[in-house]
Amino acid sequence: MHSYTPGLHVLATFTASPAPLTDAAACQAFFDEQISQHGLSKVGEAYHSFPGSGGFTAVVALTESHLSIHTWPEYGLATFDVFLSNYRRDNSATVRQLYAATLAFFGGREQSLTEVRR
Amino acid sequence: MHSYTPGLHVLATFTASPAPLTDAAACQAFFDEQISQHGLSKVGEAYHSFPGSGGFTAVVALTESHLSIHTWPEYGLATFDVFLSNYRRDNSATVRQLYAATLAFFGGREQSLTEVRR
Hints:
Two copies of one chain form a homodimer.
Chain A: E1 8-15, H1 18-21, H2 24-37, E2 42-49, E3 56-62, E4 65-72, E5 77-84, H3 92-106, E6 109-117
Antiparallel strand pairs in A: 1-5, 1-6, 2-3, 3-4, 4-5
Helix pairs in contact in A: 2-3
């Protein structure tokens, strides 16, 4: 039996304009395209839009771990996570690419970034 | 407009015996009970069990942010997250209580703990 190989978890907060922060459908299409492009496997998801602010919360279960985003258009920001295990291959580069693509998709400006190896 | 108040995100890795690490249904019932007990609001979820190892991956979307767990019975461990925003009230104590209850539920032994205020 191999031993557990920790994966990389990126936690970020970024500011962005209200339009992408209120478009859950566009975010879902973007995440799906990223998951496909990186050869990841989605096994479940939940997207929920908030009636008042138009913000949304999304969690995506992957065989490799998960993605999540919580948007706050009323504050012009979002908290984003991507965590991929390294079970079959080293996914650390994919974690960073997926975060960079997300930041670009939202036209975001990074406010904080934490990397946890776990 | 109030400004954004960062919430507490706990990321933990703990070891546990295989039985709870392969029982997604028991974990789901436990999470649902915790969510109810703490007055949190679930807006979506995904639970997926792995055919080979019996491990499972779960993500739960809350109006307050999310919970996730990824279990690895073949290594006797799990990675767990709970992140609650402080939108309507300070949920920091709830985050720590929910983590402590999860550790107790799994009969787990903490291997690593990271707290991120975000």
